[in-house]
Design a protein that fits this description.
This protein is an alpha+beta fold. 49% of the residues lie in helices and 16% in strands.
């Protein structure tokens, strides 16, 4: 590459190298000292090459940014010794400053829940050893009457510090990394005593901004129901508090869910409105660009100035300013420079879905949308439709690998929604912002306009629900790994070629079509041959569902079964819909031949109900507790039609699919004297393939283990799913001796209140030389076997 030529390609290569370095730093976990010398060497070579106008300068610069990415990740990932996360597992008293307005929600029982974000200032253990501390801390509380607090107040609270942790499964958001990128490194649940508040006088800038947002919310709630006020408030300033789950799902299906969080679309809308006003007033382009940037800055402050908003504002304002000044190529360079600057300052942003989607969508709008808009216009499409179609296609296709990895869903309805619904939503946002300003001066007039917004919201909601209900409104798309993603973007980049470049490419392919044809045929033959000769493998996935059990079995030819589905006892979090279903779709499982439930407790069975609402399930095999118990566990009524698919297991039953045998090894009927906890009813299932076998025991108690052995049943297995999450009520010495597993998997929630797994159980497993795998430590656990050899992969080791 010549010096000074192809600046966009050069900047893009630097950005790609920096991002690759950040990922490498996370995988390799190298210390900063190892990187400094090669980094300084690469930087020195870059300067030398630039001064001497060497062609290899770009390679030296790319190498320098790759090494810089590793160094920046190492620096950002290492927290200061005063950070609150170093107190994880300790019961402490924390003091800090409230950084944002509390998030207030209700559970299904109507109880009040609060979430506070503190900038920690000090920590004390046992009311002694008071010491300075730092870091961001989420505090969760359940107080019937939450105290009035303002940003800047001092908060004190006692409880156990925990590291934030989501569900560690492939394709799901890394909660710990997401929060860490925002400076939040720990969580704490307040006890019944709640939080203490020391009010701090004064009216700082953040309080004034919070007051403006409260003004909007209060004015809306005067003229419309709270649910409608919550929806419009979310469209104006972001957030999901108070929103109907059905509305959120409809917006997701039609590709408009980004409207419910402040994103580049809000920035673009405000920029377009201000640019339109500038055009009407015939203002100079420089003045219009300045007004646009100023409006975006003010709006980002009102929206809370949280990192995703700031990122969208920076990208949007810089890119729009360049476009307003007819500097489209500059807008692209600005986007690349902005991405470089953001990742250099905060490398953990690379792992934040907001940054990923915002950057790729903006890139699509700048690089692809103009090309496709021109194409649509040249083929007779109206300006309005051409703009809507090109923007939708550009944003979605540019972000497709990210959408595929996290959601496995592409919204076809978004093409209709962006033409029909999006203009109404944009009008609603502009009307809402204007109404709030008007209400400051003329409250009555502002209320009238807000009421008009409420009517418009009703139209938007109705249209969104109708479009979401259209056949094939969204389609499943497979997850793309790094290799397929690079290939996808290579193909997508062909749209960016000039006419001359396309002609050169055509001539190149024409001249070498014979060699290319032979090469592609050879690759195809190799892939087909490899697939034919390699032995079929059984996959068994133990999914991280927190304090619960869930396992997925995939046969060598792709048939799928589940053994328990997880769930929560209070059903405040839909494990089936938000953990199990995404996991299944991520692996391409869109149909289950059967679900085998060990018993009816919510942490084993509740998720099944959500799965059946989303994915076809042929049958559900249960323990001998009766349909009513399962219906209650899943939150269903006794007349739910899906209950017709439920059948009680019979001991000794077997089914064989693709050479994989599933047998009901033990199905105890509940006796009159049994303690009706449900654990005594646990069925035991065994999955066998060749010489490999997997034993699923649910919450089987020691008494029932003894009964199983007394009946002459042999529980021998290669892999044992440890009973009752590692509780000492299960896994007796006699049972472990009879099962004689090589591996033991404990499905358990991190920092659970039950103290699972018990040390005594771990000791019994270790004494027998059994390899222990835990979902709270290693996340999802995957076994692959051809019936003889066994391969184990875990999420934390990045094997899956």
């Amino acid at each position: 590459m010549e010096i000074g030529q192809r600046q966009e390609v050069f900047l893009a290569s630097l950005l790609l190298a920096l991002g690759t370095g950040i990922i490498a730093g996370r995988i390799w976990e190298l210390s900063a000292g190892v990187i400094v010398v090669p980094l300084l060497t690469a930087v020195g070579m870059s300067f030398y090459g630039a001064l001497r106008l060497r062609k290899w300068t770009w390679l030296a610069a790319v190498s320098a940014f790759f090494l810089l990415g590793i160094l920046r990740f190492a620096a950002a990932d290492e927290l200061p010794v005063s950070d609150i996360s170093y107190f994880a597992g300790e019961t402490v008293k924390v003091e800090g400053v409230l950084k944002e307005e509390p998030r207030l929600t209700q559970d299904e029982q109507g109880g009040q829940k609060q979430r506070y974000l503190l900038a920690v200032t000090q920590v004390s253990i046992d009311r002694q050893q008071v010491q300075k501390a730092s870091g961001g801390l989420y505090v969760y509380a359940r107080q019937a009457n939450a105290p009035e607090v303002q940003i800047g107040d001092r908060i004190s609270v006692s409880g156990k510090v925990r590291i934030p942790r989501g569900y560690q499964n492939p394709g799901q958001l890394n909660t710990q990394m997401l929060l860490k990128s925002q400076g939040i490194t720990a969580t704490l649940s307040a006890g019944k005593q709640g939080i203490g508040v020391e009010h701090v006088d004064g009216s700082n800038f953040t309080r004034r901004l919070a007051a403006v947002r409260r003004h909007y919310r209060e004015q809306m709630e005067k003229v419309m129901p709270k649910t409608e006020a919550a929806a419009i408030f979310a469209m104006l300033f972001g957030g999901y508090d108070g929103l109907s789950p059905a509305l959120v799902e409809s917006f997701t299906l039609v590709g408009l869910v980004h409207i419910l969080s402040v994103s580049g679309s809000h920035i673009s809308l405000l920029a377009a409105v201000m640019a339109g006003l500038g055009g009407l007033l015939r203002l100079p382009k420089a003045v219009t660009a300045l007004l646009v940037t100023g409006l975006i800055f003010i709006y980002s402050l009102l929206a809370g100035a949280v990192p995703p908003v700031i990122r969208s504002a920076i990208m949007g304002s810089l890119a729009f300013a360049a476009l307003a000044l007819d500097r489209e190529r500059d807008a692209r360079r600005i986007l690349l420079l902005t991405g470089l600057a953001m990742l250099l300052i905060s490398p953990l942003l690379l792992f934040h879905i907001s940054f990923q989607l915002s950057f790729m969508a903006t890139a699509g709008l700048l690089y692809l949308a103009p090309i496709w808009q021109k194409y649509f216009l040249e083929h007779g499409c109206r300006q309005f439709a051409a703009a809507g179609l090109s923007i939708t296609l550009a944003a979605q296709l540019a972000a497709l690998p990210i959408l595929a990895w996290y959601f496995n869903q592409l919204s076809l309805a978004s093409l209709v929604a962006n033409i029909v619904v999006l203009p109404l939503v944009e009008l609603l946002i502009v009307l809402g912002l204007f109404s709030g300003v008007l209400a400051f001066v003329f409250p009555l007039a502002g209320g009238i306009f807000f009421a008009g917004g409420s009517l418009l919201l009703g139209i938007v909601t109705e249209l969104t629900v109708k479009i979401a209900a259209l056949p094939a409104s969204s389609v499943w798309i497979p997850s793309l790994n790094a290799g397929w993603s690079l290939l996808y973007y290579a193909v997508l980049s062909l749209f960016l070629l000039t006419g001359e470049q396309r002609e050169c490419l055509r001539k190149f392919l024409q001249a070498r079509k014979k060699q290319l044809g032979i090469g592609m045929l050879s690759i195809l033959v190799f892939i087909v041959s490899w697939q034919m000769v390699r032995p079929g493998e059984l996959q068994v996935h133990f999914i991280d569902v927190g304090q619960g059990d869930a396992a997925l079995v995939i046969t060598p030819h792709g048939r799928a079964f589940m053994f328990d589905c997880g769930g929560t006892r209070d059903r405040n979090f839909a494990v089936g819909a938000k953990v199990d279903v995404p996991y299944l779709l991520h692996l391409g499982v869109r149909h289950l031949d059967a679900v085998f439930l060990s018993h009816a407790h919510e942490d084993h069975a509740a998720g099944c109900g959500d799965i059946m609402k989303k994915i076809p399930v042929d049958q559900v095999i249960t323990a001998d507790e009766g349909l009513a118990d399962y219906a209650r566990s899943m939150g269903w009524g006794d007349n739910e039609p899906l209950l017709r698919k439920f059948h009680t297991a019979r001991q000794g039953e077997k089914m064989t699919v693709d050479g994989v045998t599933v047998e009901v090894l033990f199905a105890p009927p509940l006796q009159a004297g049994d303690n009706k906890t449900g654990n005594e009813a646990s069925n035991v299932y065994r999955v066998s393939y060749g010489q490999a076998s997997f034993l699923f025991t649910g919450d089987l108690t020691k008494d029932k283990e003894s009964q199983l052995l007394a009946e002459g049943i042999n529980p021998a297995s290669t892999v044992l799913k440890v009973g009752h999450h590692g509780s000492d009520t299960s896994s007796s010495e006699e049972f472990l001796q009879a099962a004689a597993p090589q591996f033991a998997v404990i499905c358990v929630g991190a920092d659970n209140s039950f103290g699972h797994p018990k040390k005594s159980v771990l000791a019994r497993l270790q004494a027998r030389g059994i390899q222990i795998l835990r979902t709270d430590k290693q996340g999802a656990v995957k076994f692959c076997t051809d019936g003889r050899k066994m391969r184990v992969e875990t999420y934390t080791e990045k094997g899956i």
